[in-house]
Design brief:
There is one protein chain. By secondary structure, the chain is of the alpha+beta class. It has one domain. Helix content is about 45%, strand content about 20%. It has a five-stranded antiparallel β-sheet with strand order 1-2-3-4-5. A hairpin with a 2-residue loop joins strand 1 and strand 2. Helix 3 crosses helix 4. It comes from Cryobacterium arcticum. This is YdhG-like domain-containing protein.
């Protein structure tokens, strides 16, 4: 097992450090999120825009970046949901993921990340249900 980080992983770590510094300085975190989305292209950009819209319309989560990717945090500043572009890590699908503060618990076994290449109307409806469950009281 290699202990060397890839170029993309190193960039993500640098982004995380910059984000922490920006947050301490009171930077506009939503503007950073929108910039991260705007810098994407193709399907990644389209999917990130849809996720952003759905989060803003259906939750009170705040937009920010997390490791350079769009993310949405609760009032305590903890990331609840994030988007990871396919292009950034050179994989075939983007990921929409939920962190431990998302209240998606369903018994002893439930998904926390989803591979996504397209979001149909039905997919968006399901995503809204997940977002609303993620921010509901446990």
């Amino acid at each position: 097992m290699s202990t060397t980080f890839s170029k993309e992983e190193k960039a993500a770590m640098r982004a995380a450090a910059a984000e922490a510094k920006a947050a301490k300085l009171g930077a506009d975190l939503e503007a950073a999120c929108l910039t991260a989305i705007e810098e994407m292209s193709g399907t990644d950009k389209e999917l990130a825009q849809i996720l952003h819209r759905l989060v803003k319309e259906n939750t009170d989560l705040g937009a920010k970046t997390w490791y350079g990717m769009p993310a949405y945090a609760n009032a305590e500043g903890k990331v609840v949901v994030f988007f990871q572009s396919a292009a950034k890590f050179k994989v075939r699908y983007a990921t929409i993921g939920f962190q431990p503060d998302a209240t998606l618990d369903d018994g002893d076994f439930w998904p926390t990340s989803f591979a996504v290449v397209k979001l149909t109307a039905a997919d968006q409806k399901r995503l809204v249900e997940l977002l609303q469950k993620a921010v509901s009281p446990a």
